[in-house]
Amino acid sequence: MGTNVLTSSSYKFYTNGEWKESLSGETIDIKSPYLSEVIGKVQAITNEEVDEAICSAQEAQKLWAEISIQQRASYLYKWADELVSRQNEIAEIIMKEVGKSYKDAKSEVTRTADFIRYTIEEALHMHGESMRGESFPGGSKSKIAIIERVPLGVVLAISPFNYPVNLAAAKIAPALIAGNAVIFKPATQGAISGTKMIEALHETALPKGLVSLVTGKGSVIGDYLVEHKGINMISFTGGTHTGVRLAQKASMVPLVLELGGKDPGIVCEDADLKEAAKQIISGAFSYSGQRCTAIKRVLVNEKVADELVGLLKGEVEKLSVGSPEDGSTIVPLIDNKSADFVQILIADALGQGAEVVIGNKREHNLIHPTLLDYVTGEMRVAWEEPFGPVLPIIRVLSDEEAIKLANESEYGLQASIFTKDVNRAFTIANKIEAGSVQINGRTERGPDHFPFIGIKGSGMGVQGIRKSIESMTREKVTVLNIAE
Ligand SMILES: NC(=O)C1=CN([C@@H]2O[C@H](COP(=O)(O)OP(=O)(O)OC[C@H]3O[C@@H](n4cnc5c(N)ncnc54)[C@H](OP(=O)(O)O)[C@@H]3O)[C@@H](O)[C@H]2O)C=CC1
Ligand SMILES: O=C(O)[C@H](O)COP(=O)(O)O
Q1: pLDDT tens profile 81-135
Q2: Are residues 283 and 395 in the same domain?
Q3: Is 64 a domain residue?
Q4: Domain co-membership, 302 together with 335
Q5: Is the pLDDT of residue 2 over 60?
Q6: Is 482 within a domain?
Q7: Does residue 448's CB lie within 6 angstroms of at least one atom of ligand 2?
Q8: What is the CATH number for 310?
Q9: Range of the domain at 193
Q10: Residues 470, 367: one domain?
Q11: 473 and 431 housed in the same domain
């Protein structure tokens, strides 16, 4: 850390194997969330440039699907190696661009390299199947179906700001190994990190046109990309509002959507409260709560609520607050608008009788970790995703009430249950409407080969290495009729 890694004030977009400036002549300023300065500009590309990218992707994909998976793997292994060798530079850019601590940014890069390698290995070990007609009444033994997975074509990968490298590569790697081409649209705040990741991919001498980096505001080029007839599959991670809009615009293409969340941490009266408090605070406040999987509300049994609140407060007091350059856990939010939104949720709750346990302090877009007690269902913070460091505590009288409140949410990403009674944990888990339920642990996406699922307003389809590969391929059946 320390040297200035942002060497170019204006970053180019990437298509057909070349780095280009947009003919629009327009760029977008990328302002660091904590440095109060513009750290670079990215191209605002035109619809015609999107067309060119998709056209070259279609061409390149045909040949890419023809070569062997071992050949495709060799490019991706090189990509993983390149990322590792550039980890310090990329981590520093992630830190500056999205305000994530250097340590977390670095582990995002190494996690990405691990992800790519595991994706290759998984794909190498995925095989088709065959079946004979004789199993069905009247069917014949001489009819054999060979069922293989084939690529879908051109995958549109749209990623959010909070994991600008990892969540993008988590789409690009499975798409490529399965034989697809990729149009990658990074979050604008995150596009420089995305550019660096694609520079590493470019170093592998990947065939021209196979991957394009298209930069520009989602509100400007998003619909054009999503509705484009040359796109055969969309993998999107981002907010629920954007995802729902996208689903309405996209027609007749498979979609995987990983969206927002309001993960509850349910604490039963028999829980190990000390451990629960640790897990909840780490789950809620890492990277200032800017994680889809952050614990975003605590539903605690009234009998142990006072004790838990004391323990939670103690854990919050240990959190470091400040600059990502100092390795702080609580860092300035991505922009002022996001901080304003968190502030509105806090003010609404306080106006309706919630009590501040700790926090509710703000310096520009840095919001100190805030615990709110006595939150009720009337308050917005009980239901809305803050994407910031505020954790509401709702006191409940029973497991049934906790389950009811958990399920009344529009979201269904994950939930955590804290109890020493495994039967009780399963009884609750079975009733929770969420993609995943964690028992005695914080909500989180990893390890990355686990299926990662959002239901209701939290998404559609499944990610996770094998599931991502499956989502970017389809089954194809070839039937052999042997002469008898
Ligand atoms: N379930 C999951 O796996 C995850 C979910 N998330 C969710 O993402 C949100 C935070 O990320 P954030 O980046 O702010 O999310 P946004 O929804 O604002 O943006 C996500 C991506 O969508 C793009 N986009 C914006 N408008 C359109 C459009 N009309 N058509 C197509 N694409 C568009 C954005 O581009 P641009 O930046 O240019 O606007 C960005 O690349 C939170 O709600 C969080 O919960 C985050 C991570 C993981
Ligand atoms: O954006 C997010 O929040 C991630 O998908 C969650 O990943 P994590 O649980 O590994 O932080």
Answers
A1: 999 999 999 999 999 999 999 999 999 999 999 999 999 999 999 999 999 999 9
A2: yes
A3: yes
A4: yes
A5: no
A6: no
A7: no
A8: 3.40.309.10
A9: 10-259+460-477
A10: no
A11: no
301 phi and psi, to 5 degrees?
-65, 130
pLDDT tens digit string along 351-389? 999 999 999 999 999 999 999 999 999 999 999 999 999
* Mean pLDDT, the chain, whole residue set: 97
CA-to-CA distance for 158 and 50, rounded, in angstroms? 14
Same domain, 247 and 302: no
Ligand 2 atom with least separation from CA of 291: 3
* pLDDT given for residue 193 in this prediction: 98
Active-site position among 258, 315, 385, 444: 258
Number of Cβ within a 10 Å radius of residue 88 = 16
Q: Is 258 an annotated catalytic residue?
A: yes
Residue among 385, 359, 367 at smallest CA distance from 293: 385
Ligand nearest to the CA of 334: 1
Nearest C-alpha neighbor of 285 from the set 369, 173, 218 = 369
Domain annotation covers residue 483: no
Residues in the ligand 1 pocket, defined by CB under 6 Å: 158-162, 185-188, 217-219, 222-223, 226, 237-239, 242, 245-246, 258-261, 292, 385, 387, 413, 454, 458-459
Q: What is the rounded CA–CA span in Å between residue 304 and residue 376?
A: 17
CA atoms within 13 A on the CB side of 98: 28
Do 350 and 227 sit in the same domain of this protein? no
Q: Kindly identify the ligand whose nearest atom is closest to the C-alpha of 453.
A: 1
